[in-house]
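Hi R.,

Here's the chain you asked about this morning:
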Amino acid sequence: MVRRLKDEEDESALREFLVKEKGFEPDVADALVNARLPEGHGRIGPTATAAILERLSNEVDADGAVIAESQAVSLCGWHHSDRRTGEVLGELPYYGEILAHNIPPGSQDPDDDDAERYGRITNPTVHIGLGQLRRVLNALIKRYGRPHDIVVELARDLKLSEDQKRQVNAANRRNRDEAERRGTRLDEIGVRNSGANRALLKTWEELHPDPKARVCIYTGAPIGVRMLFDASTDIDHILPVRETLDDSQANRLVCMAAANRRKGNRSPFDAFGSTPEWEAILDRAQSLPPNKRWRFAPDAMTRFGSEQGFLARQLTDTQYLSRLARSYLEALYPEKGAGSQRVRVIPGRLTEMMRRNWGLNQLLSDHNYADVTKQKNRLDHRHHMIDAFVIALTDQSLLQRVAIAAAQADEEGRDNIFRDLPEPWPGFRGDLETVLNRVTISHKPDHGSRASEGQRARGDDTTSGQLHNDTAYGLTGETDSKGNAIVVRRVPLLSLTSDAKIAAVRDDHLRNELEKAVDDTSGKAREEALRRFAKEHPIYRGIRHVRVLEGLKTVKITDKDGRAYKGYKGDANYRYDVWRLPDGKWQHDVLTMFEAHQPDFDPEARRPHPAAKRILKLHQNDLVALDHPQLGECICRVVKFTRNGQLTLARHTEAGNLKKRDADPDDPFKYYAPSAGGLKKANARQVRIDELGKVWDPGPLERG
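And here is the predicted structure, written out as tokens:
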């Protein structure tokens, strides 16, 4: 019937077929006739579809409802999630071919590009991530052959919003202030000010906001600050670490050593839930932070997911990207069914613990500026390589050894579960440090986007950024001494916070009246004077905005006759070109986003001299090799560039909020901002890094 609905061109014949042969009511038949079926193909053929529909039509579950599609497939003798074809792929195809069941269907038109033909994941982060995964892995396969097995770690935090970044930064500031306060407290009581002791003090403080009320949650015995550093107290893992592998602050609790021995390798409820002390323990636990308090609930272990067991948790991850990446990569192996473990997924928590306990965080310390005792140095992009190193070592054997070590640590009441875990090989830290010092970080350059031929034919052109600022400027037809157009725009009255801003007011009479009203005022007094002006002036009472003049290079908008009637400020710069003139001088030319995306754009028209040669064509995040005045020969990343010709560079390894770091006098990082002439003196040239990490450096373009 579906084929008849799709192919029948005679609507009256189709309606008659539906009513007489299929028994539909006339109004239902009309709706079916008028239905417009989407183009493309189903993901299963007509034979399988008919068999599944037959089961769905005739089978019901225990409640008399239609069975689920997965049950119908099972009754047909198939498995709804077994999509193995037996084909051995030489490389990864576009992910849509493999993950067809996980994405909206595409057009199936061979003339379309892969994303349109097979469909694409709507989440842009996942779409880009899978695309980059394909590029890197196919390059590895081409050079080294198909990997024997693959281990994937999913980053625990994807890109944050601006609000989330502010919250994280505020939390970091609070943590830093709290660490300094605890360090002072340790000095006062004569205990060494170390990261471990500060963490111990924090765990004690979390027992109760009032120091006098800090007691052992299990026994109620008071715990004073000096008891933290003798044998009377222990650090207890609230939920047993052998089951959860959770060594985080949220799972750590200061308690009396005797209570910890009694509790053993059990959750609080399993250890004390059937005892007379349980109600008192629950009452005392109410003073704990929420991330610790829930661990005293009867179902705490279930909530954590421990029923799956340690190894199962390491090898199964429910997050979206990791599931898709695993399914995608498994296409390389014909034996990709359950239990093959040719492609494994591990959580970031395990990687973090291995990195910390092998002492790898200190490999990237930045002159002691970054605190890397317990956490990775996120001010250096090479921390990703350390993660990759740890992940590569995380095979089935290592996972089993970690599980055994965790169990032994619990049995012995030890805090460090990795004490007896052997190093991968003697001297491995030195070997890794040598590689880290040689590696060059690859950054994804922003070269803009270009529409395909099919998109341009449909008028669906694309850009790589905002073409101009949102503010519209009026054109006066005049120019300033620098040749910039003098434009006019409206600004709020209260924004006139300086004499220079008032001097820019276009109306002569209004400007004079404002100067009188705010004479010899500044700051809050000037704001109040402006408010009185808008409230009391006999002519301008109620005014909220004023028109001001300024000299500005603008993007001019023209009418159908070619007359410019307004302008916009070009916000984004597209490319930084460097031309070598016949006399050997290097000259910059910054191309704006608006200019680059004009249909009649001619790059040759920007050549500063008929004999000039373009020697650099740089976009944001491109890499440049040069002789740095402080660092010597190194590779830098293009951070930004301005219309005045200043190029802002940072060493390829530098990470974090670079603008803030550059302004911080205590941070050793500083921007390098040469002009075109400075680039010549530094022997600058553009370099490229391929998917395998090889640096392609043409060498200095010229000397002197």
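One quick note: Residues 208 and 214 are 5 Å apart (CA to CA).

Cheers,
M.
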